[in-house]
Amino acid sequence: MQFELMASMMCANYGNLELEVRELEEGGIDSFHIDIMDGRFVANFAMSLNDMRYISQATSKPLDVHLMIEHPNNRIGLFLQNLRPGDTVYIHPEAEYHPSTTLQAIIDAGMIPGIAINPGTSVETITEMLRIVKKVLVMSVNPGNAGQMFLPYVGKKITRLLAIKEDMDFEIYWDGACSADKILEYAPKGVSGFVLGTSLLFGRGRPYGEILQDIRELRF
Q1: pLDDT of res. 136
Q2: Which of 11, 1, 27 is nearest to 178 (CA)?
Q3: Is residue 129 within 8 Å of 114, Cβ to Cβ?
Q4: What is the pairing mode between strands 88-91 and 63-68?
Q5: pLDDT band at 150 (very low <50, low <70, confident <90, very high)
């Protein structure tokens, strides 16, 4: 079964980021997930433009940039000029007065447009944008910090999105509290990829390649 695995780089060891990127790439990670937080849209600061720029230069793998910032349209050019065509950029619809304008800027720059939806964001409020974006990042925890508990009601939201994704031509990705049992349950249902953090990838005391191989060999 094919599904993508993305490394949540806010969980990486910043004592040697170059080694982290290299070992993840050699271990078979599909992309690098970059969480940008401004301390306003979420009550935390995590990663920066310079972190994103460095990782982009250090790997040939795609970047998966998750902007948890207020009014991303005011700053979107700073990020887009440091990315490569084919990288993904997610915004939160609640963070922008006119999110479709920001999404169009992402498209015009040759990037893949995506939206990230919080646990409390209903499918009804983002229906129109589902026809614009190519990826929907479903937050299974409230955004802002690693290591949070899965919110069970998010599963029903994913079920609703799975029912309409073919008609609206988007893919669904999982972010937050991603354990092996979540992949076993939702990959067969049609979730295309999973962001891996402290629940499954980082801080496990094992080589990343072994962990990623074990995930890809899960028995469905």
Answers
A1: 98
A2: 11
A3: no
A4: parallel
A5: low
Spatial contact of 7 and 196, defined as CB atoms under 8 Å apart: yes
State the number of CA atoms in the 13 A half-sphere of 91 facing the CB: 32
What pLDDT is attached to residue 42? 87
What's the pTM value of the predicted model, to 2 decimals? 0.94
| Contact status, residue 213 vs residue 201, Cβ threshold 8 Å | no
For residue 70, what are the CA distances in angstroms to 24, 58, 75, 95? 30, 28, 10, 5
Q: What is the pLDDT of residues 90-140, one digit of tens each?
A: 999 999 999 999 999 999 999 999 999 999 899 999 999 999 999 999 998
Q: Decide: 216 and 36 in contact? Cβ < 8 Å.
A: no
